[in-house]
Write a structure and sequence with these properties.
Helices cover 40% and strands 21% of the residues. By secondary structure, it is an alpha+beta fold. The protein has two domains: 4-61 and 119-172, Alpha-Beta Plaits (2-Layer Sandwich), CATH 3.30.70; 68-104, no CATH class. Strands 4-3-2-5-1-6 form a six-stranded antiparallel sheet, sandwiched between helices. Helix 2 (68-82) packs antiparallel against helix 3 (87-104). It is elongated.
């Protein structure tokens, strides 16, 4: 396959999106600009990933996951503990326990997420940081890195992937929708819809 994975990491959760916007304005319609995803590593080890990986549009927001079973268990536990304080304690315990249980419990997900990709990104992007991520041919990664021109305060991590590593990442996003090829010079989408 011959793919490289590049992560250009920045301090701050929104810095990568800002830098990417500036880069895209500078380079115009370079091929790699439609192959990029923005990664944000939030507190509590939650990840946010939006953009294109290997022709698929990935949209993961771990902070919007809640545990319905955790909320139910927490609410009941809070209500039982709240009985010590009477009816106001029951109501308060139910609400507070539900909130804590929803956040602390394991999320019940309706959509599968690209776990292999997300774990790879979680390990590579420090908490409180964001990154421009590119999984593409080495020449496209070269173009992205040269566009940085050393002027940005970024940490660049680049890795050539084995066929097995590339296949595992691509397989993990196989359920995500195909990415749009992007706008044309006329300003409209070429998605064919």
């Amino acid at each position: 396959m011959g793919l490289d994975l590049a992560l250009i990491s920045f301090k701050g959760q929104s810095t990568a999106a800002s830098v990417f916007g500036t880069l895209r304005d500078r380079v115009g319609s370079a091929v790699w600009t439609s192959e990029v995803a923005i990664v944000e590593h939030h507190g509590h080890d939650r990840m946010s990933v939006r953009g294109t990986f290997a022709g698929r549009y990935v949209d993961v927001e771990e902070s919007d996951h809640v545990s319905q079973p955790g909320a139910a268990g927490g609410g009941l536990t809070g209500a039982v503990v709240g009985t010590i304080f009477g009816p106001p304690g029951i109501a308060s315990g139910l609400v507070l326990g539900g909130i804590i249980g929803a956040e602390a419990g394991k999320p019940s997900e309706l959509e599968p997420e690209p776990e292999v990709l997300i774990e790879e990104l979680r390990q590579a992007v420090p908490s409180g940081h964001s990154a421009i991520a590119l999984l593409a041919e080495p020449t496209h990664v070269d173009a992205l890195i040269s566009a940085l021109d050393g002027s940005e305060q970024a940490v660049v991590v680049r890795r050539a992937l084995t066929d097995e590593q590339a296949s595992a990442l691509i397989t993990s996003i196989a359920g995500d929708p195909l990415a749009s090829p992007g706008p044309t010079e006329a300003g409209d989408s070429t998605s064919g819809v």
